[in-house]
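Working notes for the structural subgroup meeting. M.R. asked for a predicted model of this chain before we commit to crystallization trials. I am recording the input and output together here so anyone reviewing the notebook later can reproduce the run.

Input as submitted:
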Amino acid sequence: MTFEDLRDYINFMLKRGKIVQIDDEVDVNLEIAELSRRATYSHLPPLLFTNIKNYREWKLITNIFYSIDAVKEILGVDNLEDIGKNFLTEFQGIPLSLIDKIKSLPNFLKLGKIMPKSGKPKFKEREMGLESFPALKTWPKDAGRFFTFSLVVTKDPETDVHNVSVYRIQILNDKEALMHWQAFKRGSLAAAKYKEMRINKIPVAIVNGVDPVIAFTAASPVPPGIDKYLFAGILRGEGVELYKLDNGILVPSSAESVIEGYVDLEDLRPEGPFGDHLGYYTPVDYYPTFKVDRIYIRDNPIFHATSVGKPPLEDAWIGKAVERIFLPFIRLVIPELVDMNLPEYGLFTGIGIFSIRKTFPGQAKRVMMSIWGNGQLSFLKFIIIVDADVNVHDINQVMYAIATTVDPARDVLIIPNAMNDSLDHTSLHPPLGSKIGIDATRKFKEELGREWPEEVKSDENVVKKIEPIWNKIIGKYLPSK
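Returned structure, recorded in token form:
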């Protein structure tokens, strides 16, 4: 699916009767967020607010990613795993950065229309400040109003690879905001490189209101080194049109708004509290300050926001889509991996369930270590490994596997002083915390000390003989089956 911009997506949804337009006056202070959460919990389609108190110039959209089917519709696929599989088969050896494409002409020609391209901006510079944006206060004790689904664009100073991510941004005043990029996020890692080069003011752009495919890409853990604009082009089937700002940052030319500026790494200020996706307020901590140089905006602008809190909200459905899309990538590193489930109520960085084809003793613990060394999966606090015949998406099957294969002293692995989610309030000194791995696979003789017991199975001849009798029973007493 290719949308020209956010407006094109809204028109697409309007034609299908899948936009809930709200013309009643609503306030950015708690009211929009409350309505948005109720809509997501109820699996309603996107909400388009047209009458925002004190922000008459704006429309505001929330709840774009309201279900897993909504993500499939945006990406134009029925099977999300096919995206990862097609990427791996069609684009091996792709150039990782926008500069590398020049050095790799054959690959550049191969990629064709999905490469980023230059575009004429639809926005224009305006004299306005951050407080003119209808950013939301989502929970009563939040420190203020936050950008919650704006894209933060940075550039790696060594490779020129652009990173596009979603970080919450707390507005301080018209010219300043706080950039909440956590340790080991790509924006923070780029900042560390600038700091090593003794550059403390790094170019940044805050972008809002883009094609939802680009927004989804920004929220996804694209493999390190791959330019997210390039990956968005692969998902869209067409390259993203970009415009180069004066600070050297490339931004989507069809964005509803762009804030050009820099992050001052030496200007750290207290950020938060903020009611986050764990369902708790994250406490105050120090983060660097973003400072505005210029603001660009389209006529009759549309602002994109989300409300986070206890699952399942929009981030849950983005997470489930990411799980499916990136499964083929993880299988490259862990070939014995069959399937995985990052349950939405496990908060994606909390609990992960993985099935493997087990062929040798100790393999489950080896896989745990591989998972904890793999990108965003490294933040998982609980890992459960089961056999290939266990459906990881059926929690009852997983519970049965744990109950019938696990001896806690032998099969539970606890790792202290490891890196977890920075928002994990259960740790004394986040992001430093502990991890637990559970080997819920059937054990080899070397692991158990004796042969694993034989599982019960029905007699095949008896099954064939009673089948007609059983069919009569279910036909009479279970007709709906």
